[in-house]
Recover the amino acids of this structure.
């Protein structure tokens, strides 16, 4: 029987009622009396030297309050980077400044040159058109390998080159890997691109800055996945506002997928300008503006080599990746191709020797940073593609080849610095074979062929490291922040609870799932628990929501705080019942004395804490409120096996997804309905990457896919109904809930399945196609079929 | 958007008069024009809405001809032309999306003549007559290249007359982002011959594939098209497909349209 | 500025607009009805779908003045008179047809319009109808499921979870 409440129940989401009735409160729904509006004049060229910005005509336009340029920000800091990577030679990465408004040069289409603040949004835009900008266009570097050539134009004149870093991992393995590849019985080599994507949460970014003259306090309302991180970065590094004078609020957030983690110039601008003009300042991005100002994702060019012995055991992996950083380092950009990518190159396999080389490159494009999965999809894609290619070259079954090389003993220390605590890769593959009906594929292929279509089956596995992250470990790896999470549990006198968490939902359903945990722990109704998040003024310092960390890290903090509450309640209950604290048990919302019929209800204990007339005041304080910070001991390692069946129209190259199947091991589940929803969404994004989405620049740095007219978002008709399972369960061994996180898996695991399926389909039709880069548009598939 | 005056006349005559003013521009359903205005790519002083003109709306079928008012939405065509000219109705039912079809109009589409729009293929393949506020124009004379038509300034498409073919079909291969036609082919068989119009493919906008027409007029079957192809030269090449790919699709889709007709 | 009047969710409203004011701006900025959202500027995403005289339209691609005298229905007016959720809204909650909620108003308005025209749509018809509504969170699976449920035909109509 499925449970109807508590941990493991598919409780309906309470937040849905407001979203379904138009009562949500997104940042663009916030309007403050007297607010002005800002329009950013952005560069329409990729690279240029700013000679002069003449704002005099624009300043005289109706409604204009003030026009800001880079000069106005000379006294403040630039946007900081939160992660410092050390290169192969022990040197720190090259780290250029990132001004709020361009200073001296523009470095990508969309780089903000000036900001017009006016009484209305239309007036601000009207006036921006009257600004005269004299820019000397410079040659742009777009292609990464060209950017690294001697004499290439430099994105940042003060750096020695466009190379941010050249990273080797594990550098000590380099020679041994080279030798293993030289000595291998078989080596499969694959060169591929992981296509550049735009995250495209449906809510475009918005910022509203407010300044209270009477107190000197600043408030920023923003579309953020992590308001405390924004407060820290913007307050300490950009504007010099102490954290106690700065409040950051992220109300309902309409999706993020990574791109709302980062601290953006527009946030700093609105906060700065509100104080400068003593009026609230609001910015709402248009979708067109989002395409040239939101951090992009992926954009890796990789060569991977897989070495096998004569028995088809994997003996070594060597990769060389070029990772696009764009024009500036976005908040966590350097960590994505390194620590979120290199550490995952072992995948689900016991390959003894691995060497990963990554060259991060500056180009005249929008900055690139984490997008759903961040580094792990790139690792999974290359690994699962090269394994599939090896199976085809060797003429062996791709499932059997994978199974033969699976890691089966845990904990398992990989040669790339992480230790998987638990997993069972055969179990998820067994489950996949079952739900995917692999045995019935041959008949389905026949049916497709009868319709003139080629049918393919693609299989892959994935592992990810999430529940980000142990602070001491990431600190050693270059993080400039801790990655713990926090929760304050406040029990009211009448027994209801409020949890103030540093996690922040942007669609994940925290308001529903978090109370399920507490309801289970105490034995009360979920409706007695309310979640408060997204506001630095009333939640403890938290690191926010990304990296599938909310339940694994934020949930664990909440558990720890609730345990403190329960322990205190036991003391109170012992006092009330004149019993020993050690004998007190909590069950179904009541404290009882073991072995007796004495019991006191949850609510009575809570009341006693706030009306301490009969209370152990000499031992404990009144009140019932506890805070915990939880720093995980390790990453969590969800894993799974995915399958995709496609049909290819041989006349047009058009690929349709006929079936998409996922068998995941997320450890314990809090709300299976929400978990399924997370997987569905990830699968659609993975299918989008594999078939549709492509962020493309021309050679001059103009963005060709700059709107939904050219950037193909997956629609309802592009995806099938999904067949998924998450019954395989090896609980995480190091967090109190045994949970692993499920937010990114779908997007990590699905692209290789789709590509493997298409390659399988084409080969079944006699086309010897080894690889097609994503997105596998009809035109690309057709071109590949022409040979 | 830049600011503009908005007027909404209720007769064609008043609309023509309003369009005679300086920098006035007609607004059909606005499904292309409004996004264009948002990008500030046009700066009309006055927008003359055609949505209030009752005489420009509706579908009428009589004597082998379907006449569609220029202000008729795609959604209405999809429903009301379904029995008289099913291929045309099917085309209309697949333009944009349901909400777009509830606003976008045939007159607006033909006046804009987007090189990837669907309606131009139907009008050209059907040998339709474009009826304007001042004259009638044969489809063969009307389409004059990408975003270019025979319309004079201030001239309004008030109706389109489609001779109903014996057989017809339109096959659209969608550009995956915009859902416009990457290539679309409309084939219409009449007693006096077959007409084939191709949209989405050519840098010159919608065009007739005369070789295919000749072959199909002799033998209306997909087999008749074997060995025929359009040259890649002059086709559109962009991030969604090369010139060669579009040229290839013209052949594939024409065969499929014939089979579906 | 010109004064316009219309009925929104059955209530007479009026306000001053410019020629360029979009219907969605009239709803959000003039009337303060922020349930209708703007997710793009090319008429693709459908977060802004409302009904004008019974037809689903993209309120970001219609001028406010075009709605003079019209009956407009928005997400704020979809619940039943007693405050309970409409059949479509309830199905979205029951089947987890929303995550971040941003595309949801448009999805609900489109789904409601679909079921008015086609009370028993197939899965393929639903997917085709939603062509103009983009959701980035759900992968559409549970939206399709919710609409099947709202039309009373969930059983067996969709592949297993």
């Amino acid at each position: 029987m499925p449970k109807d409440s508590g941990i493991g129940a598919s409780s309906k989401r309470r937040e849905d009622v407001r979203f379904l009735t138009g009562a949500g409160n997104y940042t663009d729904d916030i309007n403050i009396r007297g607010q002005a509006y800002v329009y950013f004049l952005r560069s329409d060229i990729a690279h240029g030297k700013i000679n002069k910005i003449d704002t005099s005509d624009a300043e005289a336009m109706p409604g204009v309050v003030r026009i800001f340029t880079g000069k106005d920000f000379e006294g403040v800091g630039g946007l900081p980077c939160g992660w410092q990577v050390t290169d192969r030679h022990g040197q720190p990465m090259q780290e250029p400044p990132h001004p709020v408004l361009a200073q001296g040069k523009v470095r990508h289409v969309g780089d903000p040159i000036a900001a017009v603040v006016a009484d209305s949004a239309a007036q601000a835009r009207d006036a921006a058109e009257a600004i005269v900008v004299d820019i000397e266009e410079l040659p742009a570097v777009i292609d990464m390998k060209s950017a690294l050539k001697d004499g290439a134009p430099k994105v940042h004149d003060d750096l020695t080159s466009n190379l941010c870093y050249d990273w080797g991992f594990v550098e000590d393995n380099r020679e041994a890997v080279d030798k293993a590849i030289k000595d291998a019985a078989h080596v499969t080599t694959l060169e591929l691109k992981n296509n550049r994507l735009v995250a495209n949460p449906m809510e475009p970014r918005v910022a509203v800055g407010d300044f209270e003259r009477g107190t000197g306090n600043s408030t920023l309302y923003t579309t953020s996945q992590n308001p405390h991180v924004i407060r820290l970065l913007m307050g300490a590094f950009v504007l010099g506002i102490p954290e106690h004078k700065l409040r950051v609020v992220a109300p309902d957030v309409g999706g993020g997928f990574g791109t709302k983690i980062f601290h953006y110039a527009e946030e700093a601008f609105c906060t700065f300008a509100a104080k400068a003009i003593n009026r609230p300042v609001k910015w709402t991005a248009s979708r067109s503006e989002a395409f040239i100002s939101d951090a992009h994702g992926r954009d890796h060019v990789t060569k991977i080599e897989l070495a096998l012995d004569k028995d088809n055991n994997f003996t070594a992996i060597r990769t060389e990746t070029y990772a696009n950083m764009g024009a500036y380092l976005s908040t966590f950009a350097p960590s994505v191709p390194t620590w979120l990518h290199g550490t995952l190159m072992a995948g689900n396999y016991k390959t003894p020797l691995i060497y990963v080389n990554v060259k991060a490159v500056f180009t005249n494009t929008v900055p690139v940073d984490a997008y759903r999965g961040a580094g792990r999809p790139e690792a999974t894609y290359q690994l699962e593609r090269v394994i599939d290619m090896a199976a085809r070259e060797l003429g062996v079954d791709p499932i059997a080849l994978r199974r033969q090389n699976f890691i089966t003993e845990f904990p398992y220390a990989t040669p790339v610095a992480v230790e998987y605590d638990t997993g069972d890769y055969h179990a998820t593959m067994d489950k996949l074979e079952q739900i995917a009906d692999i045995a019935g594929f041959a008949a389905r292929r026949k049916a497709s062929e009868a319709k003139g279509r080629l049918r393919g089956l693609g299989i892959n596995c994935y592992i990810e490291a999430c529940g980000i992250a142990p602070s001491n470990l990431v600190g050693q790896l270059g993080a400039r922040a801790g990655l713990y999470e926090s929760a304050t549990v406040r029990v009211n006198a009448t027994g209801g609870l409020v949890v103030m968490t540093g996690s922040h939902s942007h669609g994940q359903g925290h308001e529903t799932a978090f109370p399920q945990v507490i309801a289970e722990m105490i034995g009360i109704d979920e409706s007695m628990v309310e979640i408060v998040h997204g506001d630095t003024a009333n939640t403890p310092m938290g690191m926010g929501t990304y990296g599938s960390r909310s339940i694994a890290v934020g949930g664990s903090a909440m558990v720890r705080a609730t345990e403190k509450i329960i322990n205190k309640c036991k003391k109170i209950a012992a006092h009330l019942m004149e019993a020993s604290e050690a004998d007190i048990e909590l069950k179904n919302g009541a404290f009882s004395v073991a072995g007796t019929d004495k019991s006191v209800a949850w609510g009575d204990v809570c009341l006693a804490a706030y009306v301490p007339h009969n209370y152990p005041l000499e031992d404990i304080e009144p009140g019932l409120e506890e805070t915990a910070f939880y720093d995980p001991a390790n990453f969590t390692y969800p894993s799974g096996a995915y399958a995709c069946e496609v049909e290819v129209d041989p006349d047009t190259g058009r690929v349709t997804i006929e079936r998409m199947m996922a068998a995941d091991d997320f450890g314990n589940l809090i709300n299976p309905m929400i978990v399924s929803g997370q997987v569905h969404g990830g699968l659609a994004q993975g299918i989008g990457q594999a078939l549709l989405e492509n962020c493309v620049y021309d050679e001059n740095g103009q963005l060709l896919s700059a709107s939904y007219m050219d950037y193909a978002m997956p629609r309802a008709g592009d995806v099938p109904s999904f067949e998924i399972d998450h019954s395989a369960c090896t609980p995480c061994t190091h967090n109190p809930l045994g949970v692993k996180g499920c937010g990114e898996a779908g997007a990590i695991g699905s692209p290789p399945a789709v590509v493997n399926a298409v390659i399988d389909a084409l080969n079944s039709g006699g086309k010897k196609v080894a690889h097609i880069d994503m997105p596998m548009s009809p035109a690309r598939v057709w071109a590949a079929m022409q040979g | 958007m830049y600011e503009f005056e908005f007027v909404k006349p209720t007769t064609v005559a008043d609309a023509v008069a309003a369009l005679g003013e300086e920098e006035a521009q007609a607004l059909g359903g606005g499904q292309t024009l409004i996004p264009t205005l948002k990008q500030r790519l046009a700066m009309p002083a006055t927008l003359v809405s055609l949505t209030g003109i009752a005489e420009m709306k509706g579908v009428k079928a009589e004597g082998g001809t379907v006449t569609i008012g220029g202000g008729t939405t795609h959604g209405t065509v999809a429903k009301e032309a379904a029995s008289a000219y099913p291929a045309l109705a099917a085309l209309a039912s697949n333009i944009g999306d349901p909400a777009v079809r509830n606003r976008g109009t045939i007159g607006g589409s033909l006046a804009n003549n987007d090189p990837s729009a669907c309606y131009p293929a139907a009008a050209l393949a059907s040998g339709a007559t474009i009826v304007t506020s001042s004259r009638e124009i044969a489809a063969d004379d009307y389409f004059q290249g990408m975003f270019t038509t025979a319309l004079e300034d201030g001239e309004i498409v008030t109706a389109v007359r489609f001779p109903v073919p014996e057989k017809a079909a339109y096959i659209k291969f969608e550009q995956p982002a915009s859902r416009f036609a990457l290539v679309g082919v409309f084939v219409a068989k009449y007693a006096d011959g077959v007409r084939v119009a191709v949209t989405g493919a050519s840098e010159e906008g919608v065009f007739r594939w005369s070789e295919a027409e000749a072959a199909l007029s002799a033998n209306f079957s997909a087999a008749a098209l074997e060995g025929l192809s359009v040259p890649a030269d002059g086709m559109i090449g962009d991030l969604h497909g090369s010139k060669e790919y579009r040229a290839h699709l013209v052949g594939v889709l024409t065969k499929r349209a014939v089979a579906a007709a | 500025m010109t004064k316009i009047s219309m009925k929104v969710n059955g209530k007479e409203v009026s306000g001053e607009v410019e020629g360029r004011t979009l219907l969605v701006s009239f709803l959000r900025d003039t009337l303060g009805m922020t349930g209708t959202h703007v997710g793009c500027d090319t008429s693709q995403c459908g977060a802004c779908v409302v009904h004008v005289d019974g037809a689903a339209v993209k309120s970001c691609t219609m001028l406010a003045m075009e709605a003079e005298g019209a009956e407009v229905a928005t997400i704020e007016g979809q619940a039943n008179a007693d405050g309970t959720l409409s059949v479509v809204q309830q199905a979205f909650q029951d089947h987890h047809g929303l995550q971040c909620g941003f595309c949801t108003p448009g999805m609900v308005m489109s789904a409601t319009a679909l079921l008015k025209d086609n009370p028993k749509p197939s899965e393929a018809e639903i997917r085709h109808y939603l062509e103009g509504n983009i959701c980035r969170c759900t992968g559409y699976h549970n939206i399709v499921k919710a609409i099947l449920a709202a039309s009373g035909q969930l059983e067996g109509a969709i592949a297993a979870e």
